[in-house]
Amino acid sequence: DVKVTQSSRYLVKRTGEKVFLECVQDMDHENMFWYRQDPGLGLRLIYFSYDVKMKEKGDIPEGYSVSREKKERFSLILESASTNQTSMYLCASSLFRPMNTEAFFGQGTRLTVV
Amino acid sequence: AQKITQTQPGMFVQEKEAVTLDCTYDTSDQSYGLFWYKQPSSGEMIFLIYQGSYDEQNATEGRYSLNFQKARKSANLVISASQLGDSAMYFCAMREGGTGANSKLTFGKGITLSVRP
User: Fold this and answer.
1) Min CA distance, A41 vs chain B (Å)?
2) How far is Cα A74 from Cα A92, in angstroms, rounded to an integer?
């Protein structure tokens, strides 16, 4: 059974804290993605990675960074958490080829910054 | 500019009837793929159907079909014989081709579908 696992289901952090969200996949996928989901805004891509140590900015990278030191693990880092980063964070992974393979999602991390 | 546009705020359908969920997209790539996902209230993301830009036939998967109109850049999802369990948020997504650096997966804002008994 394919799996994308996010380290936490719920997180509460204080403003200014450095926050790490971890994502691990066991499918040997090249691509990994971080999205945030907010009501009325859908899923917005923060960063994605298509290979180890490779990363590309998505549509809303400001305030975030990522790390991919191993193929199976993709970390999202909030350098200094702010209240406007309160959101649901979704990690996903997919094969690079063929094009028609779907992305698999983790269960999501609901982050609250107080 | 938005890559994926889903403008229907919310849709209602009677059980056993068909419903169409709209999606338009914007890309200059010749090679791209379009996906639909379902997100029930539990929050999981469930893949439904895929359409490739070079596919000549509209994709079908059980009760789901995709009305692909390439010239109009639209990829509408059709759900036939709606069931109560179809009540969920539906997302259209696009993956553009090219190099690894370009192979991101972009989603629309989603459409809420409610099936009435």
Assistant:
1) 5
2) 10
Contacts of A58 in chain B (CB under 8 A): 104
∠ CA A23-B86-B88, rounded to 5°: 50
Q: Is the pLDDT of residue A100 over 70?
A: yes
Give me the half-sphere count of Cα atoms (radius 13 Å) on the Cβ side of residue A94: 21
Antiparallel, parallel or unpaired: β A19-25 and A4-6: antiparallel
A90/B105 Cβ within 8 A = no
What is the amino acid identity at position A19?
V
Give the pLDDT score at A98: 84
Confidence check: pLDDT of B1 > 80: no
Write out chain A residues lying below 8 Å of B97, CB-based: 99
The number of C-alpha atoms within 13 Å of A5 and in the hemisphere containing its C-beta is: 9
Report yes or no: B11 and B115 within 8 Å, Cβ to Cβ. Answer: no
CA dihedral A113, A26, B100, B48 (to 10 degrees): -80
CB burial of A66-75 (b: ≥16 within 10 Å; e: otherwise) equals bbbeebbebb
